[in-house]
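seq as requested:
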Amino acid sequence: MTPRARPLPALIAALALIAAALLGAACGGDGDDSADTESSVSLSDCTPEQLETLKQGTLTVATDKPAFPPYFEDDDPTNGRGFESAVAYAIAEALSFKSSDVEWVVEPFNSSYAPGPKDFDFDVNQISITPKRAEQVDFSSTYYTANQALVAAKGSDASKATSLEDLSDTTIGVQIGTTSLDAVEQEIDPSTEPRVFNDSNDVVTALKQGQVDAVVVDLPTALFLTAVQVPDGKIVGQFEAPGGDQWGALLEQDSPLTGCVSAAIDELRSSGELDAIEQKWMSEAAGAPKLD
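struct tokens:
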């Protein structure tokens, strides 16, 4: 299916808003250590008949619009294609809802974590779990922890790497004070000291001007960079590193559904289904293979 055309300025503006929210993911100290705590609720107590959803028998799920790949495909959350669309329908299935029982609504990113009543049961929109946000809304168990990613110019030697070992002689640019810098030093350990820049714009400029062979940022930011800021850049691959940004389903504060949504995500993780969804949409479809 061909994605619907969108006006370029609107696309770039919307992507910029997403990137602004995601760039903080690379900074240390923002994560909520409680995010991986498993729910004590049993899924047997989480059937549609028992759940206090916004509409009885319906699961109302929110995300922003436009909805971009690889999180949503064709700007259509209802098709089940894209990482977060697939996750939402997997949660619904774990809670015994049919796909036809899922209703999507639009919720702007910045208003999703504002305090107050919500017109949805949960929201999936690349929303980072942070202590400040958790004072105003509920978060489920983590459904995604952002990996680090290496971006290089297409056709360069660095762009041909297939493992972390292949990057040992690569001059890498990275932003100071970020988990990305820690990842370069701990996971890649290049023979040349990484070049450290004060902010993300300087990192991008260094890559564009050839001051570095490649840059390391978190994967969601890498997707933005290659889509908008460095169109001739390539995501060489992604790799795991401590301190990755964590995303959770967002719910109204003290929602009666929080424990059940967490229980569903915990089950998806333990069964391997969550990993399979991530592999399909955040690795294969996003063109970001794993680097070991």
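DSSP finds nine helices and ten strands in the chain.
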